[in-house]
Amino acid sequence: MPEQALLEQVVDKVRPLLGQGKVADYIPALASVDPNKIGIAVTTIDGTTIGAGDYLEPFSIQSISKVFSLTMALTLYEENEIWSRVGKEPSGQSFNSLVQVELERGLPRNPFINAGALVISDLIQSRLGAPKHRMLESIRHLSGNQKLISDKVVANSEYEHSARNAAIAYLMKSFGNFNNDVDTVLRSYFHSCAIRMSCADLSKAMLYLANRGKNLTGKQLISPVQTRQMNALLATSGLYDGAGEFAYRVGMPGKSGVGGGIIAVIPGDMSVCVWSPELDLNGNSLAGTAALEEFCQRLGRSIF
Amino acid sequence: MPEQALLEQVVDKVRPLLGQGKVADYIPALASVDPNKIGIAVTTIDGTTIGAGDYLEPFSIQSISKVFSLTMALTLYEENEIWSRVGKEPSGQSFNSLVQVELERGLPRNPFINAGALVISDLIQSRLGAPKHRMLESIRHLSGNQKLISDKVVANSEYEHSARNAAIAYLMKSFGNFNNDVDTVLRSYFHSCAIRMSCADLSKAMLYLANRGKNLTGKQLISPVQTRQMNALLATSGLYDGAGEFAYRVGMPGKSGVGGGIIAVIPGDMSVCVWSPELDLNGNSLAGTAALEEFCQRLGRSIF
Amino acid sequence: MPEQALLEQVVDKVRPLLGQGKVADYIPALASVDPNKIGIAVTTIDGTTIGAGDYLEPFSIQSISKVFSLTMALTLYEENEIWSRVGKEPSGQSFNSLVQVELERGLPRNPFINAGALVISDLIQSRLGAPKHRMLESIRHLSGNQKLISDKVVANSEYEHSARNAAIAYLMKSFGNFNNDVDTVLRSYFHSCAIRMSCADLSKAMLYLANRGKNLTGKQLISPVQTRQMNALLATSGLYDGAGEFAYRVGMPGKSGVGGGIIAVIPGDMSVCVWSPELDLNGNSLAGTAALEEFCQRLGRSIF
Amino acid sequence: MPEQALLEQVVDKVRPLLGQGKVADYIPALASVDPNKIGIAVTTIDGTTIGAGDYLEPFSIQSISKVFSLTMALTLYEENEIWSRVGKEPSGQSFNSLVQVELERGLPRNPFINAGALVISDLIQSRLGAPKHRMLESIRHLSGNQKLISDKVVANSEYEHSARNAAIAYLMKSFGNFNNDVDTVLRSYFHSCAIRMSCADLSKAMLYLANRGKNLTGKQLISPVQTRQMNALLATSGLYDGAGEFAYRVGMPGKSGVGGGIIAVIPGDMSVCVWSPELDLNGNSLAGTAALEEFCQRLGRSIF
């Protein structure tokens, strides 16, 4: 199990990388974040959380929310109701591409690209009365932090720049793979993306992925088999168009967000979250990826 | 560690699936194989090999040879000499597609699709005097079976139906990513694909992937880091367009061939090989995949 | 110049083809049309109109409206304001594909595929206060028929099935090539598509394309150069994915609609309109195309 | 009919454009041509040829040879034997793209992109004993110039850089749409591309396209209907990815080559050839296109 000192060493080691990436700037609310942040937190299956650097500072979780959404969908639907509407394969395309969705007649490749996450949001919308509220409540519960909020400025800003996601949703609707009002679902989707959490919050919230489906309080959120399957999907599709490189360098199932966060797990042992806002060319945190690589190497652990 | 009885149970469990897939028939030499075969072999890191069903019967390893080729390239070249010519990402396209190669200007997505494997063969051709001989010797050594041969009828038949692979090679050549004579490299490539091995041969030969790079005789073939990286690439790209589904169902890094073989590993523990000639729609052994799924489930093991 | 008898012969010749195509059925309002209709009308540059078959019966002009829209845009904007937002090349893709629009970063190939026509509608929306009214007035004036109307049932039905077109518009918006509210523009677009005209109405209205830009009343609508350019675009891009085949068989610049109408011109001589609701696999009127082929052959005329 | 003075004016008008394009440099033999050349020749259906500028200087006809090849195929095969193996539609892709050929399972879009021209060469190879000799003889006959030769240096240079074309041919072979030895057909193909002709030679040789299929000596080469169809295909697909723009600006069926030549016809009146080695971004002669535009404008002629 990692110790505090190891986390400090990891942060020290990658801090020189700050300045080499580029903060997401497609919306003003994200562009204004301080680029010089770097944090890491680890939660082990005994429930202990340790951290280093800016690991207590909240940031916009963005696409990391796709993990929570898929998990919620797994609790609301039978498996085949989900997997008949979204695939399980890496996309081989940019995270927001419409080409694949058109060529494969409205079926997104996996739940972690935008198209797939929008289908998952559409599924949740069909089943829940107040999906925004329920998703936030669920994430608060998972992290044990009742004060988590969704950043209204970020959510609104995303919505105002949502033409690409609207195009994806309407394209799927034209193939019969989107049932609710596009606008309503986009609002819910951006609400989840705009939730602010710290590395500590996220490593706690993701513990169920390391603990055969049991969350921080010991409650079985999804089954052990579902947990293993979720980790498999994260390993093959969790890092946009950089899943192969991430597996090669880091060797943990993981999910990144354009806010600079990355969560990752070593099944049976621990969940990890790193955060550093500057991104590499694939849209993944540059220093964050390096921190996870360093962490695995020093710990001598990997799933491979 | 698995016992003989468990392997027998796995074989019995999946035998009813025989008849549901389709033997590869793009060349006559493969089409004539008996479809009712099913075998499994496991080699643990203590060097023990056990098996069940037709695990001693040799079959055409086909694309499983791509693992041996990449391994040989790793022993001949610096890392950057390889990864500047082939990527590490899932392709999101059919295993023999030219679209991606054209759009990405001659750079194949990974070493396990045809385009990438041809680049690896081109690299080997540039460095070795007698690549066919050397590859066969290497595989004989890895499996501890000096009698292994490449099936001339299969190799010639592949060559006579090689227009698609020739197109891929020439396309890469047009982008400057193929240096040797296309015909010569294709001959070497098919020679390796046509090597005949049993499940027992293959599980032994692949032990280094489970044993941090050490082969059956304890010799360090590639480094522990390279082994971990190889397993990462197999997990994200080893099963053609079905890598996500395979990870989801089986949860082991693996590589399949159209001869019906699949190799897979649990790092630190064991290498496995299954064989059953009938393929599913992705070109992976139908009963073989089911056998691996059953094996992992009964053993309660997975990397996820 | 053609005579009445020739038109009758053309209609008789192609009537046996009725029953071989398929009426557009993507919206109920179009699916219910009588499939056994066939009409042809010709307007010569002296202003005379003759016809045969069901040439006085109004039908839904659908994509033929794209000719009127581009013409109106040419009267509202400078050339470069239009051609910086839409190209002049054949698309090589289905009329409603998003692939090309994504790959070419929001710039549609030409004004006669859906994406290009939506950009033209967006341009018109930016310049006119009441675009629906103005377009209808303009078409009434061109055809000399003040009673023309847009079919509300068809327009509403199109709108209710507009997900694909909405996806295209939002995709262009995401690239900065769509300025107005998507919903508003779609409403205008469908209003024009749903205008009902007969072959006689349409051959009269299109006379300006045959008469160097002068309409039926002798007024210069667009310049001779613009007219020649419009005909060039119709010849290369007017028939969806069947422009080459249409040029090969018919040899006239033309534009088709899924309502079964096709307009075509022999520059300097005449405008023609045929109508028959059953479509071929490219979405062009099956008997209508044959009628134009027969007409050109009997007349011994073609632009080639 | 144009007079000598008009041709001189056209040349004078476009000469200032020299220096704005880029000579084809993918093979050394083409890169060394003098860029400051500009010529134009016109042959009217009475058999008269006039010219201006460098209209008597021979250049490499390159893709203009595709017109001669298709014409020869039309004399050797039934229509359906040709059009079952190559389409009639604009490609919407770069002239040497493999994407379309793969997606449409080996069927090239039209006979004027490389893939289509290779299929035509394959057809000719199947029927003729000495296709290189026969093609040269035919072109000598058409132009009335027995001294025409194919430039061996250019042909060999093309062959040495033929990986892309080899890839296309092998891809079509993999779909069963290429019957002869790839190398042999490539040799014939490049032999025709490397034929050297002057503007005068080419305008004479192409007269049959303007004269309902009758060549300079009055012999019927192809039928009037075939001639009209050939012109239709040239209008929609003759200028690579710039067919729409060429129709818009020039308004004549035409075919360009990377040697800087463009042939064009006004059916019933005349054939024209321009030459200037510098190309625009679409690979068509920059000053040559401008010369044709100027020519049509001054003459007040166009097919539209």
Automatic annotation (TrEMBL), chains A, B, C, D:
Catalytic reaction equation(s): L-glutamine + H2O = L-glutamate + NH4(+)
SUPFAM superfamilies (UniProt xref): beta-lactamase/transpeptidase-like
One Pfam family hit: Glutaminase
Family classification: Belongs to the glutaminase family.
Name listed for the protein in its UniProt record: Glutaminase
Organism (species): Shewanella canadensis
Database matches in HAMAP family: Glutaminase
Subunit (UniProt): Homotetramer.
